[in-house]
């Protein structure tokens, strides 16, 4: 079998052989196809990159048709069941599971770096009383680049590792403080005797007690949610991290860009929309009328369907289990009944079956977060903490990829050309 594509340009009658490698052709090869010597080469128009590979990556594998998600080759189900978020973070960053000694060293380093400079606290206090925690997180991660100016030396491997450790370590501190600020509560310093996720819960919820120790089942459930969100290959925020990182800026600035992308409702905000929808439906008896409305195209069933997963979202199954564990501690969220009934009806309905619409990761995650008493504005902050090792693993890969260049797409220009400029005093006379 010849691994190439024969293209005939009907403008000129000329044929071209374009090599195929890894199921792709190089866009630059298409650039050699020209209608005339002075004409620009053929380009690909792909808003939203729906069919463009932007990099080679060995971090995360997804097969949407089969419902497979693997980090560095390990199925998400096995990692969620048997690993911890910190171990998964190590796996994503280093490409292999740690030995005992490597894990202990990693855990020590991350724990050691959870504190932030006191001045960070000062500027976080300066945000308006009702500041959105995601805006605060984005700004404070960006600001860390000014505290660690050596982070700009991205060619230095040791330096890169140092910033990666710092960022994974400080993200819960910054996330928790963003939450406390909106509540008018004092910031809680990290407790380095606690695990990564238990410490995060302590910084969120500790009041006057000398030590805050969350229920182990809650710690485990949140840790699992972090694992589920740790990477998802070239999604919008990861693409933002890579795109900004391609200018060779420091990793804090690149990750701040990723947080900006995640802030948007099309990326990180669907679970909040699920909660709003469940609340609006209000009771099980209203579900059939709601489903009819969805089928008539009035609105979408939020938390269903996915651009990539067309069989099922493997993360959704795991989240359902975490739901049970959390509600055992917190008591059942009355919206859960509506969600479960909605899922049951939708999975049997021809409309959803035919279109391969299944619950996605967001269908149940909002319910869990609400049970923890997080306000909806915090949902994306939690997502960002979980996604940080993924962003950094992708950024690390980018910095060492010889094929990468500064991200600079082409455009199809649709504006005017060659207009004559008339100075203001003539134009306005
Ligand atoms: C995630 C999503 C944007 C993916 O969209 P997509 O891959 O571009 O799929 P399309 O929009 O092309 O939808 C394909 C068909 O399924 C329907 N569909 C997709 N998601 C649907 C939903 N949640 N409810 C009802 N119908 C839906 C579309 O109307 C379309 O039907 P048609 O062929 O009759 O026109 C989409 O499924 C959606 O909006 N889901 C709800 C929001 C959500 O949960 N987002 C979180 C994603 S993690």
Give the beta-strand count: 5
Question: Which structural class matches the secondary elements?
Answer: mainly alpha
* Strand content bin: 5-15%
Integer average pLDDT: 95
Could you give the order of the helices and strands?
EEHEEEHHHHHHHHHHHHHHHHHH
Account of the protein in words:
With 429 residues, the chain is mainly alpha-helical. The protein contains 19 helices and five strands. It has helices at 27-30, 76-82, 85-94, 100-112, 118-125, 133-147, 157-183, 196-205, 216-229, 236-245, 251-263, 270-281, 287-295, 314-330, 334-348, 350-354, 362-371, 379-399, 424-427, and strands at residues 4-9, 14-19, 60-63, 68-71, 74-75. Strands 3-4-5 form a three-stranded antiparallel β-sheet. A two-stranded antiparallel ribbon has the order 1-2. A hairpin with a 4-residue loop joins strand 3 and strand 4. Helix 2 packs antiparallel against helix 9. Bound molecules: coenzyme A. Coenzyme A (COA) is lined by residues 270, 294, 300-307, 355, 357, 360-362.
Question: Which short descriptors sum up this protein?
Answer:
mainly alpha, two-stranded antiparallel ribbon, 5% strand, binds coenzyme A
């Amino acid at each position: 079998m010849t691994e190439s594509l024969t293209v005939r340009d009907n403008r000129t009658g000329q044929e071209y052989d374009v090599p195929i490698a890894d199921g792709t052709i190089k866009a630059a090869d298409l650039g050699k196809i020209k209608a005339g010597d002075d004409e620009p080469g053929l380009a690909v128009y792909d808003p939203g990159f729906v069919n463009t590979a932007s990099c080679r990556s060995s971090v995360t594998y997804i097969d949407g048709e089969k419902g497979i998600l693997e980090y560095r080759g390990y199925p998400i189900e096995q990692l969620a069941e048997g690993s911890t978020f910190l171990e998964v973070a190590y796996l994503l960053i280093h490409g292999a599971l740690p030995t005992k000694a490597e894990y202990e060293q990693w855990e020590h380093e991350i724990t050691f770096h959870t504190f932030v400079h006191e001045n960070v606290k000062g500027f976080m206090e300066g945000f308006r009383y009702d500041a959105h925690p995601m805006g605060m997180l984005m700004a404070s991660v960006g600001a860390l680049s000014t505290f660690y100016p050596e982070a700009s030396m991205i060619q230095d491997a040791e330096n890169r590792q140092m910033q990666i450790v710092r960022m994974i370590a400080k993200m819960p501190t910054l996330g928790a403080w963003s939450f406390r600020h909106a509540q008018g509560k004092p910031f809680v310093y990290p407790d380095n005797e606690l695990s990564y996720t238990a410490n995060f819960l302590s910084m969120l919820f500790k009041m006057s007690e000398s030590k805050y120790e969350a229920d182990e089942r809650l710690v485990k459930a949140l840790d699992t949610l972090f694992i589920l969100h740790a990477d998802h290959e070239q999604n919008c925020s990861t693409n933002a991290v890579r795109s900004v990182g391609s200018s060779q800026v420091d990793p804090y600035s690149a990750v701040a860009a990723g947080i900006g992308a995640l802030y948007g409702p099309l990326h990180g905000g669907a679970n909040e929309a699920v909660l709003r929808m469940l609340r609006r439906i209000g009771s099980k008896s209203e579900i059939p009328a709601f489903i009819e409305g969805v089928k008539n195209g009035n609105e979408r069933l939020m938390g269903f369907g996915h651009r990539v997963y067309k069989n099922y979202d493997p993360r959704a199954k795991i989240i359902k289990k975490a739901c049970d564990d959390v509600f055992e501690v917190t008591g059942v969220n009355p919206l859960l009944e509506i969600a479960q009934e909605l899922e049951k009806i939708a999975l049997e309905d021809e409309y959803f079956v035919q279109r391969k619409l299944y619950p996605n990761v967001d269908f149940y995650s909002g319910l869990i977060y609400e049970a923890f008493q997080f306000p909806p504005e915090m949902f994306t902050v939690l997502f960002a903490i979980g996604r940080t090792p993924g962003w950094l693993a992708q950024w690390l890969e980018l910095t060492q990829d010889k094929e990468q260049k500064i991200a600079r797409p082409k455009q199809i220009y649709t504006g005017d050309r060659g207009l004559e400029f008339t100075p203001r005093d003539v134009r306005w006379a």
